[in-house]
Specification:
Aspartate Aminotransferase, domain 2; Aspartate Aminotransferase, domain 1; 2 domains; four-stranded mixed β-sheet; 8 helices; globular
């Protein structure tokens, strides 16, 4: 089943409590855009409802909250090294983390066509092996991740302090340490704002324009827009501004100036 989101774009535990059924066996906890969900609240919910916890930290590598590091929370925790993530492999890549020996053995088997420790193929699996070259590049890049994440935080602070907040809704207070994989603002006329920025050479993105329940592949499990009002509204309003560690201050202020220019020729309409 799907859950609605809250103001920080992460799922709402209150909604999970309303929807849970005896058939539920696991919770997938997605730390979206770089902001962790509350570890204590998620742990308590899973314990009280006897659920396995699968943690999706693909966008929040390096984030932490309440003394808990991202990807240390789940029975299984998943990381992505896609080139679009804060640390990207050449091509793509990913890691599954667990301290459960049984789950570790199962994951190793599934990543290599279902081959067990004896060398027999005992179930259908996947070809999900990272190349040695990709792993070597990642090991080299990881030594710079602290510096790169600090630069992302500096850029996010520049946006926080200078964007016209009477005109766009900025991400709001950060709980713990944010990885700032994305810097997402909201505006009621998002498409018009995006077109304005792009016409002035400022690239921006929409993450994400279609709620999960409305995607064709999910039709067997879909719901209605009325069930997920916050996710539906966010899909209409969200816009990701440029944020990566190689932006210069001048480039960041150029983005801010373009948003200021848009706000001067339109009525202040905050999302």
């Amino acid at each position: 089943m799907f859950l609605d989101i809250g103001p920080d774009f992460n799922f709402e535990l209150d909604d999970a409590q309303r929807r849970i059924t005896p058939q539920c066996t696991a919770l997938v906890c997605v730390h979206l855009f770089g902001q962790m969900c509350s570890p204590a609240a998620v742990r308590d919910f899973c314990r009280d409802n006897q659920l396995r916890l699968i943690e999706d930290g693909a966008q929040s590598f390096g984030a932490s909250r309440e003394g808990c590091h991202c990807d240390s929370l789940g029975d299984l925790s998943c990381l992505s090294f896609d080139p679009t993530k804060t640390v990207g492999a050449p091509g793509s890549g990913g890691v599954v983390l667990t301290d459960d020996p049984r789950l570790a053995s199962k994951t190793r088997s599934l990543r290599y066509h279902g081959k067990d420790e004896s060398g027999e193929f005992t179930e259908l699996g996947y070809n999900s092996q990272m190349s040695t070259l990709s792993a070597a590049v990642l090991c080299w890049k990881l030594q710079y991740n602290g510096v790169w994440q600090e630069r992302r935080r500096q850029i996010a602070t520049m946006y926080d302090e200078n964007l016209p907040t009477n005109f766009v809704r900025t991400p709001g207070p950060v709980c713990g340490i944010h990885s700032h994989h994305k810097y997402v603002v909201r505006h009621a006329h998002r498409d018009r704002l995006a077109a304005f920025l792009k016409s002035r050479g400022v690239e921006c993105g929409i993450h994400y324009g279609t709620p999960l329940h409305a995607t064709p592949v999910m039709h067997p499990w879909d719901g209605t827009d009325d069930e997920f009002p916050c996710a539906v509204l966010a899909a209409r309003e969200v816009l990701s501004l440029p944020i990566h560690p190689f932006l210069t201050d001048e480039e960041v202020y150029r983005v801010i100036e373009c948003l200021d220019a848009f706000s001067r020729v339109h009525h202040p309409i905050a999302a």
